């Protein structure tokens, strides 16, 4: 089967249609802004915790689109139509991971610059955060698609998605935020975690879709 | 005669309940089968098993060649124009040029630029048939294709299936509405439900 690329463009279009892809970014900025309100306008303190704040907010923002990633296509019969054409569900999940990353990561990385301004982050810290996000967001996208497939069709899917996804995303947070103090070693570990998630996520998602269908 | 689809002693179980047992039939080029039975007798499960979406609890299903499927879910993105929604599937089939003729064949050419969400139930069902026509697959698996269709559209559906069979295709049709399919193998399910 050729033309899975058509699904990437279709998913991207659907993510942006109706502003769906903008919601996580807005949520991310709101979550970031909460911290200056909570800990006070102490520039030095904010600059010290700011990198970690951005990572935690990014993780929470990544949860927002999870419910839209797989469940609507499962309900609408889209995945059945792909399957009857001989497409594997793992391949579909891989394609959806790519589309989700394209819709989610670049806007988030731009928003991180704004957040860095609000938190008075030094340029060097911002650079490390951006490099970390570039490495970590593919893993986060794969995790989001796998989680979306796992909870599709369940009652209370959005609450469950948080409970399933956040613990598994903790390594990304540890090494992503850890890179701010730990430097290159933490970034390498972040890349390793991200790679494992990208490699395994589509297979988990594919199995979950097949289980939901049977 | 080319064998396109064969069920060999197939048993279907859903949620621990046996829907049908030891079902065998075969569809050759030009053949058709009509699956009938009361609600919950397993008509849709039979179609899903034939499509390879559901594994049979026992028995074997062999299919040669591509399959095209119509189910209750229309799988067309509601916010885009009909022609574009169908183009996604034509792209997966590598048959982009087939969309316009298929729409014309189903009498939907005037609706090509109308968003799917504004179409009526019957128009969506015809759009799903247009996807089947555009796919160019030899085996048609149709689950309640006449649902929501008016008498004229049912006639169109019957003519389409006849044309497809004459061209060497086969059709498996599950329906609770009468559809005229000459020489179709009758498969009656359930009754005990």
Q: What layout of secondary structure does this protein have?
A:
The complex is a heterodimer of chains A (214) and B (193).
Chain A (H helix, E strand, L loop, with lengths): L4 H12 L5 H18 L3 H21 L2 H4 L1 H5 L2 H7 L4 H30 L4 H29 L5 H26 L1 H30 L1
Chain B lengths: L2 E12 L2 E12 L3 E5 L6 H8 L7 E6 L3 E4 L11 H12 L5 H7 L15 H15 L3 E5 L7 H16 L3 E5 L10 E4 L5
Parallel strand pairs in B: 3-7, 3-8, 5-6, 6-7
Antiparallel strand pairs in B: 1-2, 1-4
Helix pairs in contact in B: 2-4, 3-4
Quick overview of this protein structure:
Chain A is mainly α.
Provide structural commentary.
The complex is a heterodimer of chains A (214) and B (193). Chain A is mainly alpha-helical and 214 residues long. Chain A has one domain. Helices cover 85% and strands 0% of the residues of chain A. Chain A contains ten helices and no strands. The longest helix of chain A has 30 residues. Chain A is elongated and about 60 Å long. The two termini of chain A are 23 Å apart. The model of chain A has no long low-confidence stretch (mean pLDDT 89). With 193 residues, chain B is an alpha/beta fold. In chain B, 30% of the residues lie in helices and 27% in strands. In chain B, helix 2 packs parallel to helix 4 and helix 3 crosses helix 4. The longest helix of chain B is centred in the last third of the chain and has 16 residues. Chain B is globular, with a radius of gyration of 16 Å. The model of chain B has no long low-confidence stretch (mean pLDDT 87).
Which key phrases capture this entry?
heterodimer, A: mainly alpha, B: 193 residues, alpha/beta, 5 helices, 8 strands, globular
């Amino acid at each position: 089967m050729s033309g899975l690329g058509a699904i990437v463009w279709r998913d991207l279009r659907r993510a942006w249609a109706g502003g769906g892809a903008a919601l996580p970014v807005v949520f991310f900025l709101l979550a970031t802004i909460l911290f200056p309100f909570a800990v006070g306008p102490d520039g030095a303190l904010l600059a010290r915790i700011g990198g970690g704040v951005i990572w935690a907010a990014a993780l929470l923002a990544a949860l927002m689109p999870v419910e839209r990633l797989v469940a609507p296509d499962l309900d609408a019969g889209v995945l059945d139509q792909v399957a009857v054409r001989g497409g594997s569900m793992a391949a579909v999940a891989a394609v959806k991971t790519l589309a989700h990353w394209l819709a989610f990561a670049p806007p988030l990385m731009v928003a991180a610059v704004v957040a860095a301004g609000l938190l008075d982050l030094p340029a060097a810290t911002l650079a490390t955060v951006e490099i970390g996000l570039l490495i970590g967001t593919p893993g986060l996208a794969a995790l989001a698609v796998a989680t979306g497939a796992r909870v599709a069709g369940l009652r209370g899917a959005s609450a469950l998605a948080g409970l399933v996804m956040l613990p598994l995303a903790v390594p990304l947070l540890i090494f992503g935020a850890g890179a701010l103090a730990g430097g290159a070693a933490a970034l390498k570990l972040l890349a390793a975690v991200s790679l494992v998630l990208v490699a395994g996520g589509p297979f988990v998602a594919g199995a979950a879709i097949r289980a939901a269908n049977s | 005669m080319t064998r396109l689809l064969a069920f060999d002693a197939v048993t279907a179980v859903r949620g621990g309940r046996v829907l049908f047992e030891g079902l065998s039939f075969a569809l050759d080029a030009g053949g058709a089968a009509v699956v009938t039975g009361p609600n919950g007798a397993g008509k849709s499960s039979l179609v899903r098993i034939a499509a390879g979406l559901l594994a049979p609890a026992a028995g074997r299903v062999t299919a040669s060649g591509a399959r095209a499927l119509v189910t209750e879910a229309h799988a067309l993105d509601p916010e885009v124009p009909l022609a574009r929604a169908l183009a996604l599937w034509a792209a997966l089939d590598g048959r982009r040029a087939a969309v316009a003729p298929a729409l014309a064949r189903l009498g939907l050419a005037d609706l090509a630029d109308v968003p799917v969400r504004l179409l009526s139930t019957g128009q969506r069902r015809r759009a799903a048939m247009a996807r089947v026509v555009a796919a160019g697959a030899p085996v048609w698996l149709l689950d309640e294709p006449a649902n929501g269709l008016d008498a004229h559209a049912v006639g169109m559906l019957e003519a389409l299936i006849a044309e497809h069979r004459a061209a060497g295709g086969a059709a498996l049709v599950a329906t609770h509405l009468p559809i005229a399919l000459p020489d179709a193998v009758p498969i009656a399910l359930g009754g005990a439900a």
